[in-house]
Amino acid sequence: MKTVKETDSKVIEAHSIVNRCRDEIAKRIIGQEKMVSSMLMGLIAGGHVLIEGVPGLAKTLAVKTLSEVLDVSYKRIQFTPDLLPADLIGTMVYRQESGKFTPRKGPVFSNIVLADEINRAPAKVQSALLEAMQEQQVTIGDETYKLKAPFFVLATQNPIEHEGTYPLPEAQLDRFILKLSVGYPDMEEELEILNRMGDEKEIPVSKVLNPAHIETLKKTARNIKIDSRVESYIVSIAAASRPVNNINADFMHYIEFGASPRASIFLHRCSKINALFNKRDYVVPEDVKSVVHEVLRHRIILNYEAESEGLTTDIVIDEILKFVQVP
Question: Is the dihedral of CA 24, 26, 29, 32 positive or negative?
Fold first, then answer.
């Protein structure tokens, strides 16, 4: 059995690895600490991350920088209406010299995949990506190929442009462990962006994270302790989002569909990682509150009444947090 001292040393080591990664990314990305931390959280949690924000907020640059900080393979796929599944996963190619069909693997066979403007591709392309995201495998012809770990999809989309887009189906949205809403920088941060990036000078970053480091972070996060009362708190939050439970609360009138048990699992997992980010080997309710919006934002579906009153999912999540008793 591990002692508290041994556990603490592993948490401190993992915290140091994360900070080195953050420091490298901060050479290029000014501000946006929440986005950077959430991308790292998704990587450690073994999930995928959907990043939503208007153009020009460094979403693509942040993903590219993360890929350069990690010693892994990286591919960027620009999603467009004419994209085909074969452009994503690959296809069978006839080799005249051998007289046989052989697989030509697509860009999805990478450790980090940036699906840029993911909602611009039709449903059949999104479905091809769904197998890779959920099963960590790709089927080409009659053969199924396992994807190398880590396999991490970061997708971007623009929330204000709907012409020529294909909304992601709920099944695919649910495969993203986190949905980030990226906002504008403040004036001081924007001034620093001008000073650092205005002359288009290339800012190099170093590779400080390799697959072994990622496995260390995952193992350490799994060993973070969580009290049964905090686990009950997580389940209560998810349950409070479900109309089928007939909860007597005003916010329930605005919810069409609530969060599934997968939301509870991801909230549990991300709360542990948040504790790790805060150099603790145990979870507190504040860790749950810190990640709950990113985990539930795309899993709670509001009705037309909420839309007519200008309510957002984040506002409803705030009401759920007020309703559920903190342990």
Answer: positive
